[in-house]
Amino acid sequence: MDKQPVLLCSRLFQKRRQADVTLSRTVLAWTETEKSRKRRTGISSFSGKAHSQAVQVCELVTVHKAEEDWTRRRKKKAKQVAELYPHAFTVSYVRRTQQHRWRCADVTFRCTSLALCERWIHVINERLSLLSNRPKSLLVYINPYGGKRRGKHIYEQKVAPLFQHACISTDVIVTEHANHARDHLKTEANLDKYDGVVCVGGDGMFSEILHGLATRTQTDHGVDQNQQDAELVPCSLRIGIIPAGSTDCICFATVGTNDPVTSALHIIVGDSQPMDVCSVHHDDTFLSYSVSLLGYGFYGDVQTDSERKRWLGPARYDLSGVKTFLNHNHYEGTISFLPAENHMGNPRDKLLCRSGCSVCQRGPPVKEQQWQLSEKKKTETDDGSGWSVVRGKFLAINAASMSCACPRSPKGLSPSAHLADGTTDLILVRRCSRLDFLKHLLRHTNKDDQFDHSFVEVHRVKKFRFQPWLQEPGSLEDLSEATKKTGFAPICSGQTPCSYSKAQSSWTCDGEILCHADIQVSVRCGLVRLFARGIEEQQPQQCVLDDPGPLSAPDPGQQHVD
Ligand SMILES: CCCCCCCCCCCCC/C=C/[C@@H](O)[C@H](COP(=O)(O)O)NC(=O)CCCCCCCCCCCCCCC
Ligand SMILES: Nc1ncnc2c1ncn2[C@@H]1O[C@H](COP(=O)(O)OP(=O)(O)O)[C@@H](O)[C@H]1O
Ligand SMILES: [Ca+2]
């Protein structure tokens, strides 16, 4: 029930129905009048069964005179309406559909006088102009070669018309080569002109935009990125992602779906989702930023192999995945990490990061608590500094700063990882048999716990370091001989761990390969913000005036007016 004072309330027509339409500071609601409903259905509704719909003002896209409609198809329809009832206005708003998808829906109200119609448009526009988080001007970068090479088409057909409809101005750059967007942002772009940057492409393209923006921000503030302990300045511009890549896990894990229209609507309503960013160094050299997966071993090898198969599009990952799985390489090294405080939860606590996540809002503990917690956390390998050390042979070392959910793995690499808690989930998969590793991988696609294996351990950490061990020459020769003959490392049957080790793998960092294996990683809490709000809890169907059934329960995003 909306308890806010009513700003405007009129009896208007919606289709052929009479409705009481009210606008408060935060909600636009319309309810078919009892008289209209009785005339239409012959049944009078019982109390509590009035057919109402309510939309939050912050989820309105735009309001305009009905004849000023925005697509040709609607122009014709709106024209007919305008002829019958010349004084009409149309409100476009966000409608939630299945699986976190949003659509832009229209509702047209017809008024008895021009003055009333103009008043409604004026008052709604006034409310919209108060929403200061909405972008008015955007800089758009399109990677025409990402994913299935449909980025330009997707933007032009699905996104640009919506931005135009919402009166957002855009400067569009179709990239001509890799790092075009990054370098343009780093040095050339006049960022004062814009309220945000839009990335049309995949995770690799997002990574370019992030690097351009974050590096530019540090340069402008005189911060040296090469210093591991430098306090980085958060980027002021938000980034919107229109998914048009191969994995698109950053979009999927922050919005809940890979759908260009949904992403465009999150940009239009001016959502804001802070995101953790890992800074990756090799000694005193800054290497890269990462927001999703930093993977050594299995995922690093998949990425390296898949780069050679780019022409295959998204399918390259499946092919390289199978090949890498059959190779079954393991890598030796030492990993040291600084665990997160206990109150930040742990990767197996099943607390999913959702819109308005309470874990992300917890922040660091007060000083004395921090001391107690770090005392508690000390492990056997802890040397007193709070750091833990693990040595061994690994099939994969993955750091997931967010769940990394994507269509391939809807719950992700670390289902309970958080978008903006200042931590990353470090997953260590020790050497095991192919069969066991396959079982582990399969659990990324079903409900079973992928961490519930003796050869897997997972830690929530704030920092980590990796130091590969160099291989003795003998075992390297064994491997190359075996691989030369078969194309793959030899396959062993049964449960026994049987795998060969190359000296080093590479790190994949949000889909880009790093040039060093020996790295130091530090999580920067909420360094960048996206035009997103995190994944919303599944919502009940919206109630509509046409709906003959009883009202569904109101949801947090859709206040209901009785
Ligand atoms: C047996 C089936 C196992 C399926 C396991 C799927 C786990 C998928 C986890 C995906 C995490 C993705 C994290 C995001 C990474 C992206 O930053 C990054 C770049 O994205 P972009 O191309 O859009 O720029 N994408 C990736 O690194 C893609 C990783 C995809 C890995 C696919 C692995 C498939 C493994 C298949 C093993 C099959 C064994 C078959 C045995 C007969
Ligand atoms: N015009 C371009 N030509 C070639 N490569 C590009 C271009 N624009 C961006 N890239 C690069 O393409 C790579 C993959 O882009 P991305 O959009 O993530 O697609 P995918 O998800 O298919 O990997 C990124 O590393 C990015 O730097
Ligand atoms: Ca995190």
Automatic annotation (TrEMBL):
Coiled coil: none
Source lineage: Eukaryota, Metazoa, Chordata, Craniata, Vertebrata
Family annotation (InterPro entries): ATP-NAD_kinase_N, CERK_C, CERK_PH, Diacylglycerol_kinase_cat_dom, Lipid_Phosphate_FormReg, NAD/diacylglycerol_kinase_sf
GO BP annotations listed: ceramide metabolic process
Span list, region Disordered: 542-562
Organism of provenance: Cynoglossus semilaevis (Tongue sole)
Protein name: Ceramide kinase
GO molecular function: ceramide kinase activity
Domain DAGKc residues, every copy: 133-284
GO cellular component, one term: membrane
Pfam family, one: DAGK_cat
PROSITE patterns tied to this protein: DAGK
